Amino acid sequence: KQEVTQIPAALSVPEGENLVLNCSFTDSAIYNLQWFRQDPGKGLTSLLLIQSSQREQTSGRLNASLDKSSGRSTLYIAASQPGDSATYLCAVEIDYKLSFGAGTTVTVRA
Amino acid sequence: NAGVMQNPRHLVRRRGQEARLRCSPMKGHSHVYWYRQLPEEGLKFMVYLQKENIIDESGMPKERFSAEFPKEGPSILRIQQVVRGDSAAYFCASSPVEGVETQYFGPGTRLLVL
User: Fold this and answer.
1) pLDDT band at B99 (very low <50, low <70, confident <90, very high)
2) Which of A78, A106, A73, A60 has the alpha carbon at shortest distance from A18?
């Protein structure tokens, strides 16, 4: 059974600081890994998707790496802004099922 | 192209009542997935449907829960005789084909059972 763990559970940083969010998973036979953003009371927004054959993806200030062999992914957010405050979810896909971590709640202080 | 639509967004039921949650996938998407997010927990897969077929319901409780995706109309997640433990956010996602690209999520239905 796939277990996905996200550390830390919560993070508070001053504006401008870089963010590092960690995700680990137990079964390396994944199809892809995704990072989502969830705002309170809202749905999920896909930020980055890394196929199993890839090692990283970048979009603007976001960069995500994937090390399948060690079962780890890291999401980097450069120069954080108050608008980055949200819960970030990591999810791995095996077949069609997404297995999610519990998330890291980020607060960026102005 | 409208995104995944879910309604209602909020639903309050008393114990023993029925809850019906609706999901309209994105245009051109024929695969629907339901996930449940319990308070302070991650999202958990419940069921995967294609038009008129349940492909995988391994994550759905055996009792009281059912799902359908008819040829016409939205996908429906039905919870009979709700209990307080059913209080959660229920998210629907859709994709054009299985496993090719990301699943697109709706805004969720927040069910509160009193």
Assistant:
1) low
2) A78
